[in-house]
Specification:
Elements (H helix, E strand, L loop, with lengths): L2 H11 L6 H9 L3 H19 L2 E4 L1 E6 L25 H13 L4 E6 L7 H14 L4 E5 L5 H9 L4 E3 L7 H7 L6 H14 L2 E4 L2 E2 L6 H14 L3 E2 L2 E2 L16 H14 L9 H6 L3 H7 L4 E2 L6 H4 L15 H14 L3 E3 L12
Helix pairs in contact: 1-3, 2-9, 3-10, 4-5, 5-6, 6-8
The protein binds 5'-deoxyadenosine and FE2/S2 (inorganic) cluster.
Length: 353
């Protein structure tokens, strides 16, 4: 590690603004030594804000119908091989009941962009969850909708919204998505969600086809601009029934490095060690926490639909019951000196201790 890189990491930790050129240098000149230093600084920031707690969110994948056709995604509409399913309201509430018993206090409703789930149906589901579990947070991850819809879902009780921006570079966005989709619209959605009052999460895949250092620097600058409460990042992993079937996966090494950088860039951010990270390496999620992450999102979906919500190949946990995932993760986190918590796990705007 050169003094220069160490200096950049120190300045990031001191909340100084790095220029495009400096961020480029940091990403391009990284080595194992600088990564180790980065992770040490990222952990220290993370411990100051969140201690050794790891927040959990129970993920409910409630529909794999999707009207979009993103080139990377296994549930894109053109994938005729995907076996489609929707959970009923009763099935979703059942997942919450099981999850509540296991200690989950945040439920994430994630699905493709599925017209069946209009505002009426969704507000009914959200208000039932909030009525049954008033001490729980509801996070939505439903893609792009109009402002009135986001507002209606918020008014029904939704607390948070995850909408990964995928890439903050226009050309790269066009490489990953059909023409009908645009980065400008994605960003507009994110700013609207924030204005409405949601805790907002954005994020990107690491190593997606066509991604350059420049794209990643655009991502980091966008993160700074949006200043989200959460950032979801994980490696791109090819899915065999998509146009990107033969593309290489993103690496563990670069994903971890970016987790560390993001922890320093946004010290208070909620940063999950994602399932995709756990898929490309058996200890991916542990390493993600040790690089600065503070959230895990085990699956609460019924086991009989798990293997149908396949965004990428070889996804882990598709055969395991919710209780198994919960205790598995608990063991894994304890193994590296962290503690899974049963709280809502809200964003901490200021340091509490
Ligand atoms: N590899 C990794 N992540 C993927 N996602 C979708 N497809 C893939 C893939 N092939 C991510 C996207 C999306 C999130 C729900 O999953 O970033 O926003
Ligand atoms: Fe699902 Fe380990 S977290 S089996």
């Amino acid at each position: 590690m050169t003094d220069n890189i160490k200096h950049l990491i120190d300045r990031l930790e001191q909340s100084q603004t790095l220029s495009r050129e400096e961020l480029t240098l940091l990403l391009e000149c990284r080595d194992q030594q600088s990564a180790d230093y980065l992770f040490e600084r990222a952990r220290s920031v993370r411990h100051r804000v969140y201690g050794r707690e790891v927040f959990t969110r129970g993920l409910i994948e409630f529909t794999n119908y999707c009207k979009n056709d993103c080139y990377y995604c296994g549930i894109r509409k053109s994938n005729a091989a995907a076996e489609r399913y929707r959970l009923s309201k009763e099935q979703i509430l059942d997942c919450c009941r099981v999850g509540y018993g296991l200690g989950f206090r945040t439920f994430v409703l994630q699905g493709g962009e599925d017209g069946y789930f209009n505002d009426d149906r969704l507000t009914g589901i959200i208000s039932s969850i909030k009525a049954g579990y008033p001490d729980c947070a509801v996070t939505l991850s439903l893609g792009e909708r109009n402002r009135a819809s986001y507002q209606a879902l918020f008014d029904a009780g939704a607390d948070r919204y995850l909408l990964r921006h995928e890439t903050a570079n226009d050309n790269h966005y066009a490489r990953l998505h059909p023409e009908a989709m645009s980065l400008a619209h994605r960003k507009q959605c994110l700013f609207q969600l924030k204005e409405i009052g949601y805790q907002v999460g954005c994020g990107m895949m690491v190593g997606s086809p066509g991604q350059t250092t420049d794209c990643l620097v655009d991502d980091l600058l966008f993160l700074k601009e949006l200043n989200p409460h959460m950032v979801g990042i994980g490696p791109f992993i090819p899915h065999h029934d998509t146009p990107f079937a033969d593309e290489p996966a993103g690496t563990l090494e670069l994903t971890l490095f970016l987790l560390g950088v993001i922890r320093l860039l946004l010290p208070n951010v909620l940063l999950p060690a994602t399932t995709a990270l756990g898929t490309i390496h058996p200890l991916g999620r542990e390493k993600g926490i040790e690089a600065g992450g503070n959230v895990v999102m085990p699956n609460l979906s019924p086991v009989d639909v798990r293997n149908k919500y396949l965004l990428y190949d070889n996804k882990i946990c598709t055969g395991d019951e919710a209780a198994e995932c919960r205790s598995c993760l608990q063991r894994r986190m304890e193994g590296i000196g962290y503690q899974l918590t049963a709280s809502r796990g809200d964003y901490r705007a200021t340091v509490t201790n």
